[in-house]
Specification:
single chain; 342 residues; mainly beta; nine-stranded antiparallel sheet; 30 strands; binds alpha-D-galactopyranose
């Protein structure tokens, strides 16, 4: 493990960058700000080493951005309608900053916090964050830990959390992939396959409308590998309203299993996403509008990356029949995901 100073927060605290892994295997650069995946360099199918995730050049760019590039998002990834819900008989009110809803843990989410490196070696690093009781409105002091590990051709990310009072937890990693390399342009030609037979339609603010529906005959049908471009240009009202795909799909099966495959014919690079979560938020970079810059200074435009975010289904506090995000004292939240490259 190598580390260096990446930058500093406005109050002067240092943001460090840690590197794990060795070429020709994956080399992962992590930031203590947001326990973020800053760069992920892999050997592509054509033999060329490329960074296949989007990232910002500086701390200031990152703090000014609302794209969550590579960040660990929490305490509750995705949306909670109107930022209000009932938990253990009382009403919880959390920060709202996305069209009236809570998104990714509130305005000052885990992606904006300095995480402490609690262990690190050549091939792994573990980062910890203690989120106080009442943080963004969420009850209970939550201790979260994210452990990154690099092993032959793959990256494993293990999220864990414990609490001292009843709360809700839904952590994920918000990396955007471009298998032709960060800044290579659109991923429209990437082939996506999803191990999912149903998806959750949403209202214009991204809140689930109700029950999941079959993907059959919709642009969300990626049961067989298909290019992303035609789907995000479909006239399906769900796609039009979200300006692309920004939806939760129900991953078939249980336990750690394959959830998605992303492949670029241009560089012959293939990524499998494995997850133990019931849902996967597929987000095609719809809000990237040229205003954010990459770590190489290039503008990110719509569709320049795709985020595949394993998690619980969105807005679970309002859907008691869906797998629950409630965490009680004495319990341990665990979420494992893997990025496997061929
Ligand atoms: C998530 C959301 C999107 C968007 C991005 C960040 O994936 O579902 O609507 O907010 O985060 O820009």
């Amino acid at each position: 493990m190598r580390h260096m100073r990446f930058g500093q927060l406005p109050d002067g605290q240092a943001v460090d960058l840690h590197t794990i892994g060795t070429a020709p295997g994956p080399v992962l650069e992590l930031l203590t700000l947001g326990a973020t995946v800053h760069r992920l360099e892999v050997t592509c199918g054509d033999g060329v080493r490329r960074n296949v995730v989007l990232g910002h050049a500086t701390v200031a760019d990152r703090l000014a951005s609302d794209a969550y590039l590579g960040a660990t998002v929490g305490r509750y990834a995705n949306r909670i309608a109107h930022g209000r819900f009932e938990l253990a008989g009382r009403e919880v009110v959390v920060g709202t900053h996305d069209r009236g809803n809570s998104l990714h843990g509130g305005p000052d989410g885990f992606d904006r916090r300095l995480w402490e490196v609690v262990s690190a070696g050549a091939d792994h690093a573990a980062l910890r964050l203690v989120s106080p009781d009442g943080d963004q409105g969420f009850p209970g002091e939550l201790t979260a830990q994210v452990r990154y590990e690099v092993a032959d051709g793959m990256v494993r990310v293990r999220h864990e959390a414990t609490t001292d009072a009843t709360t809700v937890v839904n952590l994920t990693n918000h990396s955007y992939f471009n298998l032709d390399g960060d800044g290579a342009g659109s991923v429209d030609h990437h082939l996506l396959s999803l191990d999912a037979d149903a998806y959750v339609p949403v209202d214009p603010t991204g809140i689930p409308l109700g029950e999941p529906v079959p993907v059959d005959g919709t642009p969300f049908d990626f049961r067989a590998a298909a290019p992303i471009g035609p789907a995000v240009r479909s006239n399906d009202p769900q796609v039009v309203s979200a300006r692309g795909i920004d939806h939760d799909v129900l991953v078939r099966g249980e336990g750690l299993r394959r959830a998605a495959v992303l492949e670029s014919p241009a560089t012959s690079t293939r990524l499998e996403l494995w997850s133990d979560q019931p849902g996967l938020q597929v987000y095609t970079g719809n809000f990237l509008d040229g205003s954010l810059r990459s770590s190489l200074g290039k503008a990110y435009r719509q569709g320049d990356g795709i985020a595949l975010e394993p998690q619980l289904h969105p807005d679970t506090p309002h859907h008691p029949d869906w797998p629950s995000a409630v965490l009680e004292p004495g319990e341990r939240y665990v979420h494992v995901l893997e990025w496997r490259f061929d």
